[in-house]
Amino acid sequence: MEHLYKIGITQGDINSISYEIIMKALEDPKILEICTPVVYGLVKVAGYHRKVLDFNEFNFHVAKNTQQLTPKKPNIINLGDEEVRIVLGQSSDAGRKMAELALQTAFNDLKSNQIDAIVTAPIHKGNMQSQSFSYAGHTEFFSAQCNTTDTMMLMVADNLKVGFVTNHVSINQAGKLLSIDLLVRKISTLNHSLKKDFLCSNPKIAVLSLNPHAGDNGLLGNEEIEIIKPAINQAFEQNINAFGPFPSDGFFASGQYSQFDAVLAMYHDQGMVPFKILAIDGGANYTAGLPIVRTSPAHGTGYDIAGKNIASPASMRKAIYYAIDILNNRKKSQ
What we know:
Layout: E1 5-10, H1 18-26, H2 29-34, E2 35-41, H3 43-53, E3 61-63, E4 75-78, H4 93-111, E5 117-120, H5 125-128, H6 138-145, E6 152-157, E7 160-164, H7 171-177, H8 180-198, E8 204-208, H9 223-237, E9 241-246, H10 248-253, E10 262-265, H11 268-278, E11 284-288, E12 294-297, H12 314-333
Parallel strand pairs: 1-2, 1-5, 2-4, 3-4, 5-12, 7-10, 8-9, 8-10
Antiparallel strand pairs: 6-7, 6-11, 11-12
Helix pairs in contact: 8-9, 8-12
């Protein structure tokens, strides 16, 4: 019998669809059979969303800490009893503070082995910025907390995995950040994660180009010649099966991605757009390269549909399942 993992779930932005997708996902009896979910949030906020969404049959077991959890039940660790104003569909200072509190508390519990993995509900990245939180997103937060730079945002679905050389930076900055060393390290991080976290014994990695038509031999840019191809060659010399660079349009449109275990994109939208179109069941976001396991849904706060009871929990469910799968795979790969 598999170990019953304790999966921490941060509440994310209280004004968003986070509580809706969390509660809908935890209604799935299959999830409750294989893990003990632990939501880091506020009981009063959860109650507000239950009422708005008419989820009268859904109940959390309220705990003060991880010692009071009920196995195979939806648990919530209450982070405070004060009244918090909820403004559905809008960012707010209260939303920022509560999201950060949940994230930091959950990480502290993970660090002390009180939970086994973290699934993060969506936050509003712009609203999160403050003196105490200066990270571009969850990926950067966990990288800093774990004191490592060799991490990667990896979008995961049953039919497609897409990693990123750069994460939440402008397209203008993405090109300037590219270097042979950075690409080799990212290819290596992706290769290691495929082996350790997904049990791919001999991964094949496709590396995308930066410029249209892979630069057309320098006509449309030299990054492929001067940076990307040399990095691929270096990775290959390290016995990593990296190939490319491939122009992203034809690569995805032709279905060529199906011939590889993962794809490495140069910047956010280059990989995220095809992933969201092609991924089965929406997929999930995984932070590769960390000593811990952290996943999240592959979407944002959904402010425009908050409180309307139309948000899909599919990606949140996937995030929980992938967290458990990766924990199991890491045990097997030891």
